[in-house]
Specification:
Two copies of one chain form a homodimer.
Chain A: H1 14-19, E1 25-27, H2 29-34, H3 38-43, H4 47-50, E2 57-59, H5 63-69, E3 73-75, E4 80-83, E5 90-93, H6 95-105, E6 109-111, H7 137-146, H8 157-178, E7 186-191, H9 197-208, E8 214-217, H10 226-236, E9 246-248, H11 254-263, E10 267-268, H12 272-278, E11 281-284, E12 287-290, E13 318-320, E14 342-344, H13 352-360, H14 365-391, H15 394-400
Parallel strand pairs in A: 1-2, 2-6, 6-7, 7-8, 8-9, 9-10
Antiparallel strand pairs in A: 3-4, 4-5, 11-12, 13-14
């Protein structure tokens, strides 16, 4: 699922989101609640109509953002109170309110309001943190804020996890009771437990005891190492019902996706394709390309030779207009003429040299092209993963996608 | 002509530029010379291939930008020396170099290197300037820099115009002599003369004495009032050869375009559709819409009801992909499926409420949608203007486009 936080996949027209292969997008309750407001979206006919996307949408519950993004907030058994980053007003999110806001937005899948503490490692001083992942200052602030005064010297992560785990179960029951559109919105529960496998087992059992159309694994993209992510997912996914969708929240890189699919996960969302696209960072089957690197200044290649995305193969994508686009390369007419019924997205491949130029010049088209490529990259990868579920040729898959083999430990024994 | 300063119409894929009706785009020599450099573009196969636009391109000569945009520069009979805004190095542009740079870029139409002084009024203190147009600090700086020390107290605009006029003729001869691709690149001369009609007549006679495939009217969008623009164009356009294209540089609003066409002008470029689009400012047949205004917060209408642009009528524009886009609203499949061969740009109109939300949230899609609309707005307007040349029903035209009637003085007597 591409991420469309504020009701738009950044820089991409909805038709192009679909044209990369996406069948569902994610939007963030926290952001839409603050601006433009869920009531406004509801008055405008709901989120699908508001964002011009007549296809599935999933909204998260806003809990994680309310917890980690607000500078000043408070978490209790009742819910989270935080200061709006838009207008500074105090906003309260409870399981009931998060559910009702999502009822108003009207997404097809809505998520339970959970308590999702950051990974223990994210709270470590930078020098002690694993080199594999950056320190998120927001998470560090959130942990400090969330640690009771008496224990500030030593943060008891296990105790925090226990509280979050128990609270998440109680909150899920409240979400389900508050849900007003169970007939047309699927509420998913979220399993927590950090990297403690016993805590995961405890959470999975209790969360899955509450009958819902689908279940998610939360709290695994909040600062852990890739190995920890793989270990937790491998342990937790099989604990969720086989016949219902299993959704791994906020993951991830190709290797993470592959490991998770092999563990039995069905659904993913991640900001990587879009966020990295805006930062001049393109995914390929062999690894990432950073366009700010001078080595691409004269590179004639598309982002990835052989890729079928709108940036690498623009002449394969056509745009048709209601008034009949004339072919600019042929036209020489006083009045508007009909002509070719459609135009390619581009007449020749967008080269690495051009894309680098766009980024150095600060031009929007750079982020647009690399985002389109990255979205299609992950769709192509997942299409091949789906096909491999049928053929079971996992070695063949990682040969085609060497990037997914990095740190890959082979298919689970079955 | 939409403006694609740095080799991209900001935020718009080339296929969508064509899908708004544009048959030619403008690129700026000054910007491309500084970054990525004309030699790099030439090595990459020329500008058409570099920017993925296999249709006509016009490049300006860079003279106006070198003159007005650089903080530190010098203008002599030989040319302009200025400090690069990219890396601070000193760059020299002469008629010969400007022509050779354009030969390397390879546009279909290239412009003469001219001396284009700003309007006298642009040099006035803000309090004395006409309320109709803003003071451009760059122009004020350029004028101060360009005024000989002995006369700093009183800027002799007539003298500056005389020098510029004579210089522009000599420079055009040097451009023509230096032009190395006269067989496949049309060099246009530029008539100067400010708002002094005698100076315009003098310039037109001498510029048009130099045999070239087309001629432009320069120096009329550099700070004058709309009335002055109309008066100068009405005087100057008929002085240019009837059988060759007449190009009015940097103009303009609908009323300016209409007046210019009635004066006999054939070609225009302007940043208005794209720049205003990025600033949440949409053109309609009855005037401009500013999306930051709270009155649009709940407005269900498209930007302009009845408009056929990709923002107002997204379901009329379709995107087809090489791999067959499945319809997300129908799809539920493990493997990638074929399906509808194309996807609409959007499933429902992008409402004013949504576009306003995008701008308030700082989302790229806002500028993209309004830019698409504005480009199509001016293409639709010009298509109607072209049709009216045949029907001669100018009253009918301004009834359809009330915005063009503002300050409109009726068709010229013929």
């Amino acid at each position: 699922m591409p991420v469309g936080t504020r009701g738009t996949v950044k820089g991409i027209l909805p038709g192009f989101v679909a044209a990369t292969g996406a069948q569902i997008v994610l939007a963030n309750t926290y952001h839409l609640l603050l601006r433009p407001g869920h009531e406004l979206v509801q008055r405008r006919g709901g989120l699908h109509r508001f964002i011009s996307w007549n296809a599935p949408i999933l909204t998260d519950s806003g809990g994680y953002q309310a917890y980690s993004m607000a500078d000043s907030n408070k978490i209790t058994d009742d819910g989270v109170t935080f200061k709006s980053i838009v207008d500074g007003s105090m906003v309260e999110l409870t399981p009931e309110r998060a559910t009702h806001v999502q009822n108003a937005l009207g997404a097809d899948i809505i998520m339970a309001f959970d308590d999702c503490p950051p990974a223990a490692e994210a709270a470590l001083p930078v020098a002690d943190a694993p080199a594999t992942h950056a320190q998120d200052p927001r998470l560090i602030r959130a942990i400090r804020r969330d640690t009771p005064p008496k224990s500030r010297r030593g943060y008891d992560h296990a105790e925090r996890l226990r509280i979050a785990n128990e609270r998440t179960v109680r909150w899920l029951e409240r979400c389900k009771a508050a849900h007003m559109r169970a007939d047309d919105q699927a509420l998913f529960g979220i399993v927590q437990g950090g990297i403690d496998l016993d805590a995961r087992s405890w959470s999975a059992e209790r969360i899955c005891n509450i009958d819902l159309p689908g279940y998610a694994i939360g709290g695994v993209a909040v600062g852990e190492s890739p190995d920890d992510i793989a270990r937790v997912v491998r342990h937790t996914a099989p604990l969720l019902p086989d016949a219902k969708p299993r959704y791994l929240m906020g993951v991830g890189y190709e290797r993470d996706l592959l490991n998770a699919v092999l563990s039995g996960v069905d659904m993913f969302d991640c900001v990587l394709p879009t966020r990295n696209g805006r930062n001049a960072n393109a995914f390929t089957s062999t690894g990432q390309i950073r366009f700010r690197n001078a080595r691409y200044a004269e590179d004639e290649n598309p982002i990835e030779p052989g890729c079928d995305c709108p940036a690498c193969a623009p002449s394969s994508y056509a745009i048709s207009a209601p008034w009949g686009i004339s072919d600019p390369s042929q036209a020489c007419s006083v009045t508007e003429v009909g002509g070719a019924p459609s135009k390619p997205v581009g007449d020749s491949t967008f080269t690495r040299a051009y894309i680098r130029h766009l980024f150095l010049a600060g031009e929007m088209l750079g982020p647009i092209l690399v985002t389109l490529h990255n979205l299609r990259h992950f769709q192509r990868f997942m299409a091949d993963v789906r096909a491999t579920i049928v053929t079971d040729d996992w070695e063949g898959l990682v040969n085609m996608w060497p990037v997914a083999a990095a740190g890959w430990s082979g298919p689970r024994s079955s």
